[in-house]
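>> received
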Amino acid sequence: MTTTPAPENTLPTETETETETGTAAGTAPSAIPAAAAVPPRRPGPPPRPRPRILLGSTAGSVAALLLLVAVGTALDQPLLVPPLAASMALVAGAPDLPLSQPRSVVGGQLLSALTGFAVLTVAGPGLWGAAVAGGLALGVMTLARTPHSPAAATAVIVALTAPPFWSFLGLLALACLLLVAVGLGAARVTGRTYPAYWF
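>> returned
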């Protein structure tokens, strides 16, 4: 009498199933990388500056702005102080940024002022023209590769107040050169590098 062998078990064993799926004994599936399980670290605030850098940058900014107020008051252009204060904050506080470099400080401010005068010529002084001048100044600076966000306010001031062309541009150029010079001095005192490039 011939005996027939029992049929082989076609179902996978528990060990085989765990090996194929990679889920044995609470281990993570091998298809998911370990790094994906850890959420990305969110950036925090910048580190606190060293006292020497803090004091040097602050003192340089205060000195430059007091000088600008004196010059602006003497030449009856005090409205230039707010955008130049923002420029000084960039030069003293973030000297590595492209917005802080001499090319951007001087070129961005002068190009924005010229944009303001161009809009002023077409539209006359007023809020609507000032809004257009501020927006166009951003485009002009971007095209010229002289990004300097505070300079958009200079275009707005020109389109609002219609200052005398040559005296305004002369004062603006002088003020920008002063800011760059203060930035150079503050960098020497604090041990930082400024400028990263000139042109």
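>> The longest helix spans residues 165-190.
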